[in-house]
Amino acid sequence: MSDEQARRVQAQFGASAAAYVTSPLHAAGEDLDRLLAWGAARRADRVLDVATGGGHTALAFASIGCRVVACDLTEPMLAAARAHTRARGAGNIEFVAGDADALPFRDESFDVVTCRTAAHHFGDVAAAVRQMHRVLRPGGSLLLQDILGHDDAEANAFILEIEKRRDPSHVRSYRAAQWKAFLRAAGLTVIEDSVVWKLREWNEWTGRMRMTAEARGELEDFVRRAPDRCRAAFDFRLTRDAVVSFNDRQILIRADRD
Fold first, then answer.
1. pTM of the full predicted structure?
2. Which terminus of the chain faces fewer neighbouring Cβ atoms within 10 Å, N or C?
3. Which DSSP state fits 219?
4. At CA 104, angle to CA 103 and CA 109, rounded to 5?
5. 242, part of any domain
6. 128-178 tens-digit pLDDT
7. How many domains does the chain divide into?
8. What is the CA radius of gyration of the chain?
9. Any idea what the CATH number is for the domain that residue 141 is in?
10. Lowest-confidence segment of 47-61, 73-87, 100-114 by average pLDDT
């Protein structure tokens, strides 16, 4: 990750660490259940959680007896995740500071690598995927989840503008075909994939990134001015006075190292 992008990520998430620990969308859901089921079926012993955030994925895998290493670029986020998981009684999680595209681990160190709802912050996704492949043992699995880019160019540009205004460290979201190309180029074979919808409650979603009232008002104006078809693509719910919520699609992929 470039120094500039690293600074953006650290600025955004260092101050928001506590909010990600308490975020219900990150703590649980069909998406996390699916990743956990894939990992459990692989009988994983040693798991790496890349860009662990609030530590929810690491905690879930620790709960089924895996030895987990939780890695994140942002030290305050690591500290918050450590406190959260230890308060929940998880003693089998190790916390390590590191960048997704320069993972500080030996080759073939892990049975499973997870990366959940983080890759849209990576400046070089292809490099990060190559690193995840490198640290997987042969036969191991990468369990990936991220916001799914929209196939319609106008709708995709609309949601990208919203994401970047809310979080300047957001880079982009990729379509399913792009993800599969990244994985294939790194030497990973897609075994399973699916798409789930995640409901974003507007006040919680914007508040988690500490948007000012002025910035949120300008963003809501942008949403209201957008073509109906763009709002409909993400099921935006609006009242006369407020933006209530929207949905985004998340892709989940299990890809194995040969």
1. 0.91
2. C
3. H
4. 85
5. no
6. 999 999 999 999 999 999 999 999 999 999 999 999 999 999 999 999 999
7. 1
8. 18
9. 3.40.50.150
10. 73-87
